[in-house]
Amino acid sequence: MSSNARAEFADVVIVGGGAAGLSLAHRLARTGTGDFVVVQPSHGPLRPPERTWCHWAEGPGEFESAVSASWQRLRVRGPDGSAVVSDPSPMTYRMIRSGAFEELVHRGLAGHPRARLVRGAVHGIRQYPGGAEVVCTLAEGGRLALHGRYVFDSRPLPLLPPARTVLLQHFRGWFVRTASDRFDPGVADLMDFRVPQPRHGLAFGYVLPLAPDHALVEYTEFSRAPLTSAGYGAALRHYAGRVLRLGPYSVVAEEQGVIPMTDARFPRRVGPSVYRIGAAGGATRPATGYTFSAVQRQSRDIAAALRAGGREIVPPPYSRRALAMDAVLLRGIDAGRIDGPAFFTDLFRTVPGERLLRFLDGRTTPREEFAIGLRTPVAPMLRTVAELPFLRRRTRPGAIGAPRPEENPR
């Protein structure tokens, strides 16, 4: 036991209060899986700013009270301005703000007799026979040693695991208000490729209308390095003014993030009783950056495994088949063999909306994936498949940033 620290015990300790940590806490509270504690940073430099999480789902969901907007129709625009509009019924695309999500989960925890929320900074996790100890400094002062049979750690990784390909999905978004009605609240623009493209990777605009005169307008790149602050500002001004032609507008809030898109293998178990969850546990879809939906699946699987006493407490968020396809696509885009704007525009043009969203979420069958694969540039894909086994995996720095609006993922 750590010296000079008060000790407490629980069945489960959850480290981190982002989407992954709070989603797991919400699931454990609903299923009644033992005593659990959530360690969440207090307000200050360790606490991330408010973020946007988006996802697609069928019918009203359990987070409905935290959904700030939803869209039935999705649009992708090619570099030439041609638009592909998709109706993925019965799915809708939904926006959740992290503050509203946190309030929803905290309300549930407050009424749960076996749940506790701790505000503090975690300094270390130590294994011991039959469990693990989480040492933290509390917001009100003093040190606390939390002992749990299981510890689930959702904190960002300081280094990415070795990978053959790493692209960064980096973005800045502005919540804008326009002087006149400029948006169609019924349609979300997932990818608008009418922006200058980088030498490596791809770039697109992203528009989530909240009202005819209010929207989240975002500039996103999949590339090897993020832009400077001035670079994001210039890209957004160009997109809002020259491409969208919004006219006079004001920026009422903004968000920014960086997500590694990589074929790295993320260990989900890092000790006999310690597991990684969320982006740190591989819940980010490598080729898209989408995370929120996988986090929900992961949380449900963990709760079920704890109830059943299963050996595999944190199952893989995605199948090997999905990860293999993503590795090929990432390498093809990074090498310049695959035209990213054409690739994604053609997918939305040729694949039914509901099936495509399931594909992006990693929930399609092998037969469906084969049919989708026939609509991709086959020759560059095959060349990349042949090349991948000979590429060396390398370790690179990569603290995982805020998830995109999905889900920003997204």
Structure commentary:
The protein is an alpha/beta fold and 410 residues long. Helix content is 27%, strand content 32%. Among the domains are: 6-48 and 98-157 and 263-308, FAD/NAD(P)-binding domain (3-Layer(bba) Sandwich), CATH 3.50.50.60; 320-390. The strands form three sheets. Strands 6-5-12-13-14-11-15 form a seven-stranded mixed sheet, sandwiched between helices. Strands 1-2-8-9-10 form a five-stranded mixed β-barrel. Strands 3-7-4 form a three-stranded antiparallel sheet. α5 packs across α9. The longest helix is centred in the C-terminal third of the chain and has 17 residues, at 292-308. The protein is globular. The two termini are 40 Å apart.
Give the tags.
globular, seven-stranded mixed sheet, disordered C terminus, 410 residues, single chain, FAD/NAD(P)-binding domain, alpha/beta, five-stranded mixed barrel
